[in-house]
Amino acid sequence: MIIRNKDVIQSYLLTTARYDFSIYEKRILFRLVEMAQDDLKGKKLNAGYMINKTLFKDLQEIMMPVSALFNSAEEKNHYYVKNAFRRLRNKIFEYEKNGTWELIGIIEMPKFKLTPGFVTFYVNPIIWDVILNFAKGFRKFELKTAMEFKNRYAMRFYELFSGQKTPIVYSIQDLKLMFKIENQYKQINDFFKRVIIPAKKELDKKSPYSFEFEIIKKGRKITAIKFFPYLIPKNRDEALETKKLKKAVEPHWYLDKMTLDYLKESFLFTSKEINNNIELFKEANGKLDLMLLLSDLKAKNGVIKNIKGYVIGAIKKKLKAPV
Q1: CB 211 within 8 A of CB 230
Q2: Is the pLDDT of residue 194 over 70?
Q3: CA-to-CA distance for 258 and 262, rounded, in angstroms?
Q4: Measuring CA to CA, which residue among 181, 145, 148 is closest to residue 161?
Q5: Alpha-carbon torsion (267, 269, 273, 275), positive or negative
Q6: Considering 138, 167, 196, which residue would you say is the last residue of a domain?
Q7: Residue 4 clears pLDDT 50, i.e. is over it
Q8: How many domains, the chain?
Q9: Does some domain include residue 260?
Q10: What is the reported pTM?
Q11: For 105-121, how does the pLDDT look when each residue is reduced to its tens digit (9 = 90+)?
Q12: C-alpha to C-alpha distance for 200 and 7, rounded to whole angstroms
């Protein structure tokens, strides 16, 4: 598979991949997202988790407890975990950028230690960057729900429909390609019986998001499905929903710790003042070298009376300047 850029890898790796990720493979990836979120916020990882840059920073060493991949005390089949790491290790992206060609494995060198129950492995920096980017927009309550699914198609539909409010149409062919089952379920009734209906049942039972659907035909042949995502309030985790709403206005969701500390320490911005201008900082962080601009403006501190207003004005001016 040839992947031309990291945005496309992100889509393939964590959302609409044409890969038949098993439940356990997805749980490994979701745990990596969770770890990346904590790392982004400068939060100390839970016991048993570790992110360690190797000597030459060419790989990220990851450690996590095997128990993190199970849903309950009863679910302790190490065979499935080992098989998931084996399958992930064998998945490869062919990556091209700026005239450079590279083969990239999603993970490398998994090592499973039954006692004391930890697994270590390595992640390529390009893949880790993808996970970091995905972590910025992947909410914790989604992660908790996704980890509880037992049906892999429910997990995939959950990713597609989480937060989706408008109808969306997928052709049968596209869905089969997305789930990598293009050579299965030749009879359309089997596709609905084995994929669509079981996924909907589990979403209805566990997820805050599910769907209704209507069949689209071309002549007498079913060619596509129109999905109507909807919210199931009773399936919401209220505590996690409250955290989600809080995070929606927390500046560290959009700015790294270094930038936040610089704004606070060099220009005495409060968290509330950063929040009040978060859209501006978010845009600047995406389009400019924000840290470089801030370091240039630091020389004005003590000279300009309203340094915060000056910083805001300078950022706006820089954003409007022709490239």
Answers
A1: yes
A2: yes
A3: 6
A4: 145
A5: positive
A6: 138
A7: no
A8: 3
A9: yes
A10: 0.56
A11: 889 999 988 777 889 99
A12: 29
Q: What is the DSSP letter of 289?
A: -
**Which of the residue ranges 130-134, 158-162, 193-197 has the most confident prediction, judged by mean pLDDT?**
193-197
The predicted-structure confidence for 70-87, as pLDDT tens digits, reads as follows: 876 555 678 888 888 998
Burial class (CB in 10 A: 0-12, 13-18, 19+), 91: middle
CA dihedral 143, 29, 210, 19 (to 10 degrees): 170
What residues have CB less than 8 Å from 1, skipping those under 6 apart?
Answer: 12, 18, 92, 93, 94
Ordered DSSP codes for 7-39: HHHHHHHHTS-SS---HHHHHHHHHHHHHHHHH
Query: Is 156 found in the same domain as 33?
Result: no
Length of the chain: 323
Angle ∠(91,92,93) on CA atoms, nearest 5: 135
Q: H or E stretch including 269?
A: none
Amino acid at site 293? L
CATH number at 224 reads 1.10.10.10
Identify the three-state secondary structure at position 302.
Answer: coil
End-to-end CA distance of the chain: 35
Residue 14 placed within a domain: yes
Give me the residues paired with residue 92 across strands: 105
Domain region containing 33: 2-138
On the question of pLDDT at 214 being above 90, the answer is yes
Is the four-CA dihedral 165, 169, 175, 178 of positive or negative sign? negative
Between CA 189 and CA 176 the distance in angstroms is: 14
**pLDDT recorded at residue 103:** 81
- Residue 244 within a domain: no
Q: Are residues 132 and 178 in the same domain?
A: no
- Residue 240 lies inside a defined structural domain of this protein: no
Q: What is the residue whose two structure tokens read 């084996």?
A: 86
Does a cis peptide bond (omega within 30 degrees of 0) precede residue 322? no
Name the token pair of 179: 């789930």
